[in-house]
């Protein structure tokens, strides 16, 4: 049996949860508190974006606080950012764009990389680069579940982490698609919840997301008791 690489292990963790909370913080301490609430709600995975100066230290603090949590870096635009994030403890790298240099850097180091794609041409580019999972971004404006069903019929073997504009109400539709590994979303860690330090709401929204994924996957598997 082949050994499981670090990148494959991270991918399996994302697939297990089916939801990747996308967290943007102004304070690293907020990331730790949010991560605690996510874990309590059943989500031991989080993508912390590098959109703010707090992003990189937040990755390090969450990794130190919760070593069992799969922490990734989002909004990675270049190799320097990818290297800094991995040094801080990030186990996966997500980007809104497809950058060949970032993809190659991550693959050489067996780090899970989720480059952003929107068009069939970019999906073909990902296949040629040897990837089997990509980030559909921005998912909502790219066509949502309908476009995923269409491209899945063409690019057999390519799987997706749709992110961007996904709401709680959309989660089951996306999760019902076999080629969807997990959905990225920020509704359970909305900035208003972080500002109010409403960790109870973060926990409850996380729990609801876990249940939505469970229902969708059960229906996909043909479970008659999965609910409407």
What's a quick, concise take on this entry?
The protein has 228 residues and is of the alpha/beta class.
Roughly how many Å apart are the termini? 39 Å
Please identify which CATH superfamily we are dealing with. Answer: Aldolase class I
Beta-strand portion reads 5-15%
Strand line-up of the largest beta sheet: 5-4-3-2-1-9
Question: Topology, please?
Answer:
Blueprint: H1 6-17, E1 19-23, H2 28-40, E2 45-49, H3 55-65, E3 70-74, H4 79-88, E4 92-94, H5 100-108, E5 112-114, E6 116-117, H6 120-128, E7 133-136, H7 139-142, H8 144-154, E8 159-160, H9 171-175, E9 183-185, H10 191-196, H11 199-220
Parallel strand pairs: 1-2, 1-9, 2-3, 3-4, 4-5, 6-7, 7-8
Helix pairs in contact: 2-3, 2-11
Plain-language structure description:
There is one protein chain. By secondary structure, the chain is of the alpha/beta class. The chain has a single domain (6-213), classed as Aldolase class I (TIM Barrel), CATH 3.20.20. The protein contains 11 helices and 9 strands. It has helices at residues 6-17, 28-40, 55-65, 79-88, 100-108, 120-128, 139-142, 144-154, 171-175, 191-196, 199-220, and strands spanning 19-23, 45-49, 70-74, 92-94, 112-114, 116-117, 133-136, 159-160, 183-185. Strands 5-4-3-2-1-9 form a 6-stranded parallel beta sheet, sandwiched between helices. The chain has a 3-stranded parallel beta sheet with strand order 6-7-8. Helix 4 links the parallel strand 3 and strand 4. The mean pLDDT is 95.
Task: Supply database-style keywords.
228 residues; six-stranded parallel sheet; alpha/beta; TIM Barrel; 49% helix; three-stranded parallel sheet
């Amino acid at each position: 049996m082949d050994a499981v690489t670090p990148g494959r292990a991270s991918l399996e963790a994302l697939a297990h949860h089916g939801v990747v909370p996308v967290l943007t913080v102004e304070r690293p301490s907020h990331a730790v508190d949010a991560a605690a609430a996510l874990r309590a709600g059943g989500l031991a995975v989080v993508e912390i974006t590098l959109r703010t100066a707090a992003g990189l230290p937040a990755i390090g603090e969450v990794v130190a606080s919760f070593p069992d949590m799969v922490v990734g870096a989002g909004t990675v635009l270049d190799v320097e950012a990818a290297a800094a994030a991995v040094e801080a403890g990030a186990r996966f790298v997500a980007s809104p764009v497809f950058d060949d240099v970032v993809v190659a850097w991550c693959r050489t180091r067996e780090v899970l990389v989720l480059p952003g794609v929107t068009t069939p041409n970019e999906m073909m580019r990902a296949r040629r680069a040897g990837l089997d999972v990509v980030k559909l971004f921005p998912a909502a404006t790219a066509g949502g579940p309908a476009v995923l069903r269409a491209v899945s019929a063409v690019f057999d073997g390519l799987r997706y982490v749709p992110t961007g504009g996904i709401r709680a109400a959309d989660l089951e539709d996306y999760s019902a698609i076999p080629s969807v590994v997990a959905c990225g979303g920020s509704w359970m860690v909305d900035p208003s919840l972080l500002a109010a330090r409403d960790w109870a709401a973060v926990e409850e929204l996380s729990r609801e997301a876990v249940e939505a994924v469970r229902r969708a996957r059960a229906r996909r598997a043909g479970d008659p008791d999965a609910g409407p």
